[in-house]
Amino acid sequence: MLEQNILLTFRTKHAIMRLFHFGKKGNIIKKGGYYNMKHKWLAGLLLIAMLGAMGGCSGAGNSSASQKAEESSAKESSAAEESSDAEESQNEDSSDAEKSDNAADESKVLFEDSTVRITYTGTDEESWMGKGLKVTIENLSDKNISVQTREASVNGVMDDPYFSCDVASGKTANDTIYFSTKDELGTVELSFHIFDSDTFDTIADTEKVTLVIDDCITSEKTEADKIYEVNGVVVSYAGKVDDDIWGTEFQFLIENNGTETYTVRAENISIDNTMYDGSMYAEVAAGKYANETMSFIGEELPAEMNELEFKLVISNSSYETVAESDPIKVSIQ
Asked: In this structure, what CATH number is given to the domain that contains residue 312?
């Protein structure tokens, strides 16, 4: 009977472990915060020990010894639990202090002028839309305005956020800048494009803002083979992927080691000497890199492919072409 109880207990424990995501220090993270399981497991083990001791009592002569054993076990468990409480409290205080030192302050003003005030108010890590930055946008003008993001990056990787917010004259809007990355938000850089919602005239293009959520978080760079380099821009081929929605795509790593923002686009795309209507376009800020795909939406590609060929065109922020490659051939077998 005791063995059955132990087996049931451990099966239950593993079922619980599969339902939760474990964070640092063995704590369980479940939406609102940390649940310390050490005390619950100690209590469970103590209960098993007590049941085992009760099951082994067959006579009055063993009752006294069993009672003393239970009292001793209870004292030891209580002491262990108190020690665990103290250690856990110390670790959590240390973690909170570290997080406080590294994390960006909420209610931080990202941009402000006579037209608009944009304030960071926290993060959204649980939405189906992805990971996001919460912002409050105050329209201080007598015009209807729209706010969008430009040159956004997360942990040094370029990103295309889902964000465009319209704010009527004199009103305030609460919105969230959702990023396409699957990585945790460590360091976020972005600028804002603000324009008149009615005339589409530009009101302001802000300087880039850096927001450090957690400076311990980084993104791992994709392994790829270099196929082209010019003006500090390095383009590498990372491989072919078959997406259930977008079909066959080709992945590229584009690094900008230069001093200004560049855009990279592909032209004259062919597979095994047959032209296809494919596209690849990436805007990469100085010192950043992008994980980009060459996609063929609406195109039916052959089942067997051997060679991908295309030309790359590099432009600066003034839309001036600064470099064009010769035809580049990549083996895609």
From this structure: 2.60.40.2550
